[in-house]
Amino acid sequence: MSARSWFSPAAERLRTANPYVVDSALATLVLFAVSLQWIFPDEGDDRLTWQGWLIGAATAVPLVWRRRAPFVTACAVSVATPVQAVYHAPPPDVMYGGMVVLYTMAALGRPWQRRAMLVGWLVGVSLTMMHKEEPQPFEYAFHLLSVVCAYGFGVLARVQRAYTSELEDRARRLERERAADTARAIAQERSRIARDMHDVLAHAVSLMVVQAEAGPVVMRSDPARAEAAFDAIAGAGRDAMAQLRRILGVLKEPRGDGGAWRLPQPGVAELPGLVRRVGDSTGLRVELSGSGTPRPLPPDTEVAAFRVVQEALTNTVKHARATSATVELDWTEDELTLTVTDDGRGPGSGDGGHGLIGIRERAAACGGSARAGRGPEGGFRVVVRLPAAVDREAALG
């Protein structure tokens, strides 16, 4: 096992451990370090007293509270350390407790506390060294560098903790944004599927109702026409089932799987067939005309154009009591204008309800617009403008 693979889990366990346990262990270790001269008294000729040991312990015991009350702990150790040096029984060879509280203040303290503690220790060490018997120049450098290094390690720990916190916060924000994007995508997909299912079912059911009402009327007088009506009902039902399978296939199968239900969505090219089926099934005279040069449309705009015409004709069959309708496609360089006009009773008899709302939503989703109202010669007219630009950003702009 490499040193890094061993150190990382150990550091993580230490970071998440009970702070009282960790700080108590650290205080015990510092107390052991300052007690070495009493444990091995023959190692030096310094004067040893129990009062000196108590002062040395005062530089270690407060470390138990270094993370609960860092500034108070630092002040206690900052007072005990020079007292120990002045009392000189024995003098502190290494400021163990002082380095710990400097590290703690640099990592956890407020800005003014950090600055005050660093300046205080630098000044305090310099003044305390003057009371030492025959201090050597390297001792000044050693103690001052100890202060600066301990403080520097604390600064690095604070910066690392802030960096880690920022990364974790950013990860949480990204996760929330990802969840919000997923929820929006799901809502949009549900809305799109709901519109498609409404258009398919409303169109098919309207044709089936018209033919079902006409069938019994001509059953005895014109059996051939009655048979054609029932054939139209069956054909509308089969077409609705095929389109519903295609729509539900989006939910049942992952993208790019090439499933059998994932047939191409209807577009502008299928409008002649739609117009022909409506005319054959209902007896409504529907004419399709176009002007301008057709150009490529984004895939969703292709579907929207087909569904808009389908819904407009469905509203005509259901509400208008019209005898004829026209579907006009006007191509320009930037947009396709779809106009569906009938000679029915006009907007007073029915406005299409959710159908017109769906038409407006489809147009808006593609960056276009829709309006509906009385036609120039009576009846009802729906006008939808859809962008012909393949670049959706340009279309929405």
Automatic annotation (TrEMBL):
<keyword id="KW-0902">Two-component regulatory system</keyword>
<keyword id="KW-0808">Transferase</keyword>
<keyword id="KW-0418">Kinase</keyword>
<protein>
    <recommendedName>
        <fullName>histidine kinase</fullName>
        <ecNumber>2.7.13.3</ecNumber>
    </recommendedName>
</protein>
<dbReference type="Pfam" id="PF23539">
    <property type="entry name" value="DUF7134"/>
</dbReference>
<dbReference type="InterPro" id="IPR055558">
    <property type="entry name" value="DUF7134"/>
</dbReference>
<feature type="domain" description="Histidine kinase/HSP90-like ATPase">
    <location>
        <begin position="300"/>
        <end position="390"/>
    </location>
</feature>
<keyword id="KW-0547">Nucleotide-binding</keyword>
<dbReference type="Pfam" id="PF02518">
    <property type="entry name" value="HATPase_c"/>
</dbReference>
<keyword id="KW-0067">ATP-binding</keyword>
<dbReference type="InterPro" id="IPR036890">
    <property type="entry name" value="HATPase_C_sf"/>
</dbReference>
<keyword id="KW-0597">Phosphoprotein</keyword>
<dbReference type="Pfam" id="PF07730">
    <property type="entry name" value="HisKA_3"/>
</dbReference>
<dbReference type="InterPro" id="IPR011712">
    <property type="entry name" value="Sig_transdc_His_kin_sub3_dim/P"/>
</dbReference>
<dbReference type="InterPro" id="IPR050482">
    <property type="entry name" value="Sensor_HK_TwoCompSys"/>
</dbReference>
<dbReference type="GO" id="GO:0016301">
    <property type="term" value="F:kinase activity"/>
</dbReference>
<dbReference type="InterPro" id="IPR003594">
    <property type="entry name" value="HATPase_dom"/>
</dbReference>
